[in-house]
Design a protein that fits this description.
Elements: H1 6-21, E1 31-35, E2 40-43, E3 59-62, E4 67-69, H2 78-87, E5 93-97, H3 100-108, H4 118-123, E6 129-130, H5 138-144, E7 153-156, E8 160-165, H6 168-190, H7 199-206
Parallel strand pairs: 6-7
Antiparallel strand pairs: 1-2, 1-5, 2-3, 3-4, 5-8, 7-8
Amino acid sequence: MKRNLGPLKKEIVQIGRRMYERGYVASNDGNISLRLDDDSVLITPTDVSKGFMKPEDIIVVDMKGNLLEGKKRPSSETHMHLHIYRDRPDVKSVCHAHPPYTTGFAVAGLPLDKMVLPEFVIRLGVVPLVEYGEVGTERLYGAISRYIKDYDAFLLANHGAVTVGNSLLGSYHKMETLEHTAMIQFIAHQLGGVKTLNKSQVDQLIAQRAKWGIRPNIGLKRQKKSR
């Protein structure tokens, strides 16, 4: 029986337009995907601006990256999405973008590991800096794989960011939270410094995760500094 994917494709188009209008992507950058079942994924194609997509542009691939439905070609970063789905059965959607403040931290080699805003602590916690991996190669996911079990958001060194969620809006909203927090931390640094929440305050916020359906242990590991 043929699936009615029209509403899901429209939702991806809307999210892509929002990403583009907010400046999270430029030109044909970024990818958005949704796990349909154990064998197929709905994903944005290559060489299409996320701000100008149409529902018919969105394609379906299998878990090996083979095209199942649609006329456009899969992105070179499709395999990154598929690896995430294989390693995190709880993840239903993946969002990849290059938001300026977040990517600025990634280019500077700085993780977002300061507990500064309640919403950020609850939703994401620590966001690690993933070592550089060449775009469109297995090296990109090879770096992410070391962190995927413990975090829902990642800074990709000299590249951008990835967020994962239990729905299309879930993964996109984490990207918004990530960029908003990166911008606030940048501004706070310019004003004289970033003041963090104390352990008791952070523990109280983590305890609230259960009522929001957020994994209690996500984003709590501190990234080891490499020299």
